[in-house]
Amino acid sequence: xxxxxxxxxxxxxxxxxxxxxxxxxxxxxxxxxAIAAVTVGTTVEHVAYGMFLAVPxxxxxxVARRHGRAPLAPVIRTGWLLWAALSLALAVPGVLLREPLxxxxxxxxxxxAGFLLISLAGLPVYFAQAVVDGIxxxxxxxxxxMRHALICNALVIALxxxxxHGLDMGVRGAALATAIARVATLAVAxxxxxxxxxxxxxxVTGELxxxxxxxxxxxxxxxxxxxxxxxxxxxxxxxxxxGYGIGQKIMLAGVMVFYALRQAAMISTARSGQxxxxxxxxxxxxxxxxxxxxxxxxxxxxWFTDDPSVLHPAVGFLRWMTLYLVPFGxxxxxxxxxxxxxxxxxxxxxxxxxxxxxxxxxxxxxxxxGVTGVWLAMAAGAAVxxxxxxxPRGGGPGHARDRAPRSTRTAAGRLSGR
Length: 418
Prior knowledge:
By secondary structure, this protein is an all-alpha fold. It has helices at residues 2-27, 32-52, 54-66, 73-96, 98-103, 109-121, 123-138, 143-166, 170-193, 205-234, 238-272, 278-304, 308-320, 322-340, 344-369, 371-390, 400-403, 406-415.
């Protein structure tokens, strides 16, 4: 588990967290409106990725199950066909609707719309990289996806100052630097899979979508709730949104530990049915991440801004996240075994149950406690989701647990103590 998870953590940290942090650091000198624009823009991009996530997740699980047992070509071919269809379906409407979308979340929509024009137009490249990495992870190779992420991150570090300040492109420069870095990285990554040869024809569209859809639904639900939170926090002013954006970016560096454990558990379960103790690992990781974030909250947030009106909400967010991170770490790690064993629907149901508690509570408590009420609601929702995902549950003949391979059913049963 840990051997698989370490490269995944580095990959996620560099590809998902560090790229956003670098953009945010370079635009922070342009003011709170620029910070808010990047925050909203990256949130929208993550929602689009959530709609696509079923494809790389399904590819990873099916390649892992078939490797050495059945032809891989149908899975890979289906993954690329779905990539083409979803890239077109998401990128084109996103670009056309960027201005009304930006107006929903910020007082200065022109900046956010400029970021979205470039980032959403580049979605096909972002999605293609996910498919390539999904194939490699299914083969048990988490190191090459890590290298691809490091290449992309290095390019963003080099290009961001050039486009944002050197060419005076501001927020658009941040989006363009990231897009160019992703194109170059994809060119390198494709060489990793183009040599793969596997006999067998046909498509596995239905199986791939059914396998990946619960993870996509889980991710999409989280991002949609995140957008709802941005809208709720926006009612407390642009400074509150900027502070939340900074705090969230810092927290993601720790949260990626949980997602690395989830991917490792998913790959291990799909390949061999063995996944260790993800619940324990997730909860311990949550406690450790919370402790580190409390220790570094003020100095790290100070890297992004010296404006007290932005710094204070950012630090406050990180302090309150202690209550959220422990149950959230356990939930995310458990999700890998559920997904890899064919029980992803249970993870999605638990996630939705938590959000059914979180959102009404956030609106109610925020009217009384301000943004602190939103943070408390997040903790309550995560606790409800963890209880739903980890509690023992029976299943009849039609339950997904009974349709999963025997080895993966064994791992899933071990998770819940049966």
